[in-house]
Design brief:
Chain lengths: 464, 228
């Protein structure tokens, strides 16, 4: 069994199948400013102990002074550890005076003297310029890797490697794990992405994982592409009120607990209101509810709520508001899961899917995330309602362009109908997975008590 | 953190512990059954593997018994004194360093020249005389003609001849053997007569203290057999 080295971040460790292989050679490649040095220092401070210190060796592209100056601004940088559990050394001069042979000798002496558990060489790529030819460099790599493998040392080789290097540079063959930090163009902005190119001894999460850099280090958001989990789980038969008694009756006593419901309809028809009914009906019964919205900021939402004698001060209701601009899908989904976990919410309203869709440049990714999110909620018996705006004001012809409708258990269509020259609102339960439902279209009105369902529409009425 | 994990790794065979303490293996087994206090880890083949902490605890028990205590009382005292044992341990070990006899030789039968270079360095800093051989034939000759104080053998030396060396050392009698390997060969190593096993890559501190314990064994045996 291969032991793992933790980054200190559960999510990054998850991407790496539990952590980097301890005592392995880890290569981190990426463009300038992609956070390679930050990531390496994160591992340094997370794992250094006085028994097994970490050594950070700078070569010629990154002056030691600079690494230290910027290192200080990181939250995990611990000045008291310097010289004890974290040792910074500069190899630049040794390299310039004696080349690779001297550097190798110097590294060997440092290994003997400090007995480190972790060694970073930054930049590793710069070392190749000291070799007369590729054969000499290969020889150096062999000698260095032999020494690093003879002791229990995890080493990080850092450099501005790009994708063509992956197949050509000899250090890629020696490495036990290769991480690549890069950016991806998404509309008008760049998205930072981390990918695992090689990981010996374990499976990693495939694909590109979003990450952000802050003074707390590198935050990774594992790509959410949960496989179809065929393992059966307990689905309760318990029903949850939608908050509208007549709608509960149409659904034969409300939604199942843990079900997902899509509320589709044109702008202004009352989707948000129906979602709020579900949340506040839960809060009344002691179910904590989470409103995840992009549409109304807290002030605007409070004004709407007050019109229906609800309030955000309700202790059973949590608001997660994010502006729909500069939103990152991955970050948002993880925030949502964290908030659900923290508050113990069992009812979640997402308003709206369209805003969320706009935050992701890639439709496939959006579907993967929503699918995974709904799967996770279903398994945790958390009920989700989502609103979805449809483009047609009248005579709705299409429901959703994202294929979310077939992912959700219940599908409720809200629409405007013109009957007898009068604008009317109508509700139809198009789908209620696993239960009988009233197939008729029913009229409803919005009053200060919220949505009030009325009669079935008369067949003879002239509706469009 | 790491250092304390090393102290709890199962490393020493029951035979090695019995020799270190001068307590028969069957007595160690009886104590384990009766008091359930010092219970060694088991290898996948079911062999007992004692940790350094457990060797220290057993040393404490034996010292109490030597002073006239019943084994049950000694075990009870151990439970009470765990804290003190832990704090006095550091002194014991730091004082063990300088007492290494200059003539204490370690025969290092290694496969990997880099590993040999580091192992030699760490042993020399502790005052040992080290002989490196990278071939099992040469190791067998030295073992026969100039037996060292301890043999460290990489089981994969010369294409996997390490176990044969372990058997040769056992048949030779007095040379304690530390088997090391990148592959978990605990069971075959112990079956071939190794006194302790460490998985590579070797942690310098754990490696040196294991060698020190095994050398202490032979030194202890010598003084004990002289005094009788």
């Amino acid at each position: 069994m291969i032991e793992r080295l933790s980054s200190g971040s559960d999510r990054l460790d998850t991407i790496l199948g539990g952590g980097l292989p301890r005592n392995g050679i880890i290569l981190i490649g990426g463009n300038p400013g992609s956070g390679k040095t930050i990531l390496a220092q994160q591992y340094v401070f997370q794992n250094a102990t006085s028994d097994r210190p970490a050594m950070y060796l700078t070569t010629v592209s990154e002056p030691l002074e600079k690494v230290l100056r910027y290192g200080q601004s990181l939250d995990f940088f611990e000045p008291s550890a310097l010289g004890r559990s974290v040792i910074y050394e500069d190899l630049g001069r040794t390299l310039n005076e004696g080349g690779l042979a001297s550097a190798l000798e110097c590294i060997t002496e440092l290994l003997k003297r400090n007995r480190p558990g972790l060694v970073v060489i930054d930049s590793f790529r710069a070392l190749q310029t000291y070799a007369a030819d590729l054969e000499t460099f290969r020889g150096f790599l062999h000698e260095l890797a032999g020494r690093l493998s003879a002791m229990p040392i995890t080493s990080f080789w850092i450099g501005e490697y790009n994708t063509t290097d992956t197949s050509n540079a000899p250090e890629f063959a020696v490495a036990d794990a290769i991480l690549s930090l890069g950016t991806e163009r998404e509309g008008e902005r760049d998205r930072r992405v981390l990918s695992v190119i090689k990981l010996r001894g374990s499976k990693s999460l495939s694909g590109k994982h979003a990450y952000r850099l802050s003074s707390a280090g590198l935050h990774a958001y594992p790509r959410m592409a949960d496989l179809v989990n065929l393992e059966r789980y307990d689905r309760t038969q318990e029903r949850m009120s939608s908050g509208v008694p007549a709608l509960d009756a149409m659904l034969s006593d409300g939604y199942y607990r843990g079900a997902s419901t899509l509320l589709a309809g044109p702008s202004g028809v009352g989707k948000t209101l129906l979602a709020l009914h579900f949340i506040f009906a839960g809060a009344e019964r002691g179910d904590t509810g989470l409103i995840a919205t992009f549409q109304e900021n807290p002030t605007q939402l409070e004004r709407i709520l007050n019109g229906f004698s609800w309030s955000l001060d309700d202790p059973g209701v949590e608001l997660m508001y994010r502006a729909p601009v500069d939103l990152y899908l991955d970050e948002w989904v993880y925030d949502l899961l964290d908030t659900v976990h923290r508050t113990g919410a069992t009812r979640v309203a997402i308003d709206s899917l369209g805003d969320l869709r706009a935050s992701s440049g890639d439709e496939l990714r959006f579907r993967e995330y929503v699918y995974s999110l709904l799967q996770r909620c279903a398994r945790a018996n958390i009920s989700v309602v989502m609103t979805q705006e449809v483009p047609d004001l009248f005579a709705v012809s299409r429901l959703s362009e994202y294929g979310i409708s077939h992912l959700s258990d219940n599908l409720i269509l809200l629409q405007f109908l013109r009957g007898n020259s009068q604008l009317k609102r109508a509700l139809t339960v198009l789908k209620a997975r696993g239960s009988a439902h009233d197939p008729f279209t029913r009229q409803y009105e919005i009053t200060s008590d919220g949505v009030i369902l009325g009669d079935h529409f008369d067949r003879t009425e002239n509706l469009t | 953190m790491e250092g304390s994990a090393d102290r709890t790794d199962g490393v020493y065979s029951i035979g090695a512990v019995a020799r270190m303490l001068g307590v028969p293996a069957q007595t160690l087994r009886a104590w384990e059954d009766r008091y359930h206090q010092i219970v060694p880890a088991r290898s996948s083949g079911g062999q007992r593997l004692y940790s350094r902490d457990q060797v220290d605890q057993l040393t404490f028990i034996r010292n109490q018994i030597d002073q006239g205590l019943q084994p049950a009382d000694a075990h009870r005292l151990l439970a009470q004194h765990q804290m003190e044992v832990a704090s006095s341990r550091e002194e014991q070990h730091s004082s063990a360093g300088p007492s290494v006899n200059a003539a204490t030789t370690v025969l290092l039968a290694e496969r990997d020249p880099y590993a040999a270079e580091f192992a030699e360095h760490f042993l020399r800093t502790e005052g040992y005389v080290v002989r490196i051989v990278l071939d099992s034939g040469a190791a067998a000759e030295i073992l026969r003609d100039e037996p060292p104080s301890v043999l460290v053998v990489d089981l994969l030396i010369s294409g996997g001849a390490g176990l044969t060396l372990c058997r040769a050392a056992r048949d030779n009698g007095s040379v304690p053997v530390l088997a090391v390997s990148a592959v978990d060969f605990r069971d075959p190593a112990l079956a071939a007569g190794a006194d302790a096993f460490l998985l590579k890559p070797l942690d310098p501190l754990q490696f040196v203290s294991t060698v020190r314990d095994l050398v202490g064994t032979s030194a202890y045996l010598r003084t004990r057999s002289l005094s009788r």
